[in-house]
Write a structure and sequence with these properties.
heterodimer, A: four-stranded antiparallel sheet, about 0% helix, B: mainly beta
């Protein structure tokens, strides 16, 4: 079964510190995409970063980087230099390669950044 | 480029009524997906439309339906509302890349539906 697991319900970090949000996935597919989304209290799901299963380099987008370890089936999100505005729920998601399949989401991790 | 827009943003209905939610995708995106988000069930996939055809459907009762128009705008309808339909409904659009697993879905702000 295809599944995303996020084991950290909540994480706390101080401003300017780096934080890693964990994500493991389960799939037997060779081709898949991994995504991270941020959901502030307003509700909108904001796309942060994408990693394809064939990408050899870890994806980076500004302060976000994805630590992709294919053999361990993990896709952790690293946020460098946390800011107060990073406080939100973060979802890891996977998209298989079959047409018409939907994003498979984890249960999310709530990140709280304090000053 | 304008993002995904959803209307209305907030809605209050009573049990038994029906509701229609609207989603306008990013220009050039032909795929529109709908998700329901509740505290208890998390994010659940409702359905996806591509070029006016339903391409996939989640495990929801027939009270939930949708459609897509030629301009890629999509609507979802919920008939005979139940209290459990109270949720955040998110719409997402994506651009066809030829490889499904590379399609990044961009979400709208959501519609918060409260059923009383």
């Amino acid at each position: 079964a295809q599944k995303i697991t996020q084991t950290q319900p909540g994480m706390f970090v101080q401003e300017k510190e780096a934080v890693t949000l964990d994500c493991t996935y389960d799939t037997s597919d060779q081709s898949y995409g991994l995504f991270w989304y941020k959901q502030p209290s307003s509700g909108e799901m904001i796309f942060l970063i994408y990693q394809g299963s064939y990408d050899e380099q870890n994806a980076t987008e500004g302060r976000y980087s994805l630590n992709f370890q294919k053999a361990r089936k993990s896709a952790n999100l690293v946020i460098s230099a946390s800011q107060l505005g990073d406080s939100a729920m973060y979802f890891c998601a996977m998209l298989p390669n079959q047409a018409g399949t939907a994003l498979i989401f984890g249960k999310g991790t709530t990140l709280s950044v304090s000053s | 480029k304008a993002g995904v827009t959803q209307t209305p943003r907030y809605l209050i209905k009573t049990r038994g009524q029906q509701v229609t939610l609207s989603c306008s995708p990013i220009s050039g995106h032909r795929s529109v997906s709908w998700y329901q988000q509740t505290p208890g069930q998390g994010l659940q996939f409702l359905f996806e439309y591509f070029s006016e055809t339903q391409r996939n459907k989640g495990n929801f009762p027939g009270r939930f339906s949708g459609r897509q128009f030629s301009n890629s705008r999509s609507e979802m309808n919920v008939s005979t509302l139940e209290l459990g339909d109270s949720a955040l409904y998110l719409c997402a659009s994506s651009f066809w890349t030829g490889a499904r697993y590379q399609e990044t879905q961009y979400f709208g702000p959501g519609t918060r539906l409260l059923v009383l």
